[in-house]
RBR-type E3 ubiquitin transferase (Citrus sinensis), 203 residues
Amino acid sequence: KIECPGVHCDQFLDLFTCKLMIPSNLFSKWCDVLCEDYVLGFERSYCPNRNCMALVVNEGEINYGTLKKARCPNCKQWFCFQCKVAWHAGYRCEESGNLRDWNDIAFGKLVERMHGARRPACGSCVERKEGCRVMYCRCKTSFCYECGGNLKSASGCLCKEKGDVYCHHYCAIISGLILIFTVLGVLGGVIYGIYCVIKRVLF
């Protein structure tokens, strides 16, 4: 802001009022300074498209640090506002560095359309139709569909610590029963094996 040089005047000079009185190059510099001052007040990023690289500003519609999927107003391409790469549908920000090429991104978009999720540890794609968040992967591990983290136990996940309802109330009971029967089955097999050995030795 530029104050009026007039005596006893506390008003600021208006850009467009002064346009006809100043050189065009000075007017352009003034516009650049005003734009820069405006932009510095908002979260900003540059379009990752090498043929574009336009400045994209989060003008406060979404809270600072929470905007993720953004569309460049210049080239119209979607990108991740947080990790500054092309939109990695189906991948989390911490995994975006593992994207090898556009085929990975295309696969991620397909996963997103299917409402699926990728297992962070092995990269397998799992689709969830309905039910609880507890998912069982072909790599023999269970994970939370929402946060992608390994389950800390048979009845919980990282989301539970935040107070989220991660599951149907009976899933924890079922998981516990499955665990108990699995242990009993293993113990039963061991006991039966010992019995067979003893029987063969004695008889």
In short: The longest strand covers residues 43-46. Residues 7 and 13 are 14 Å apart (CA to CA).
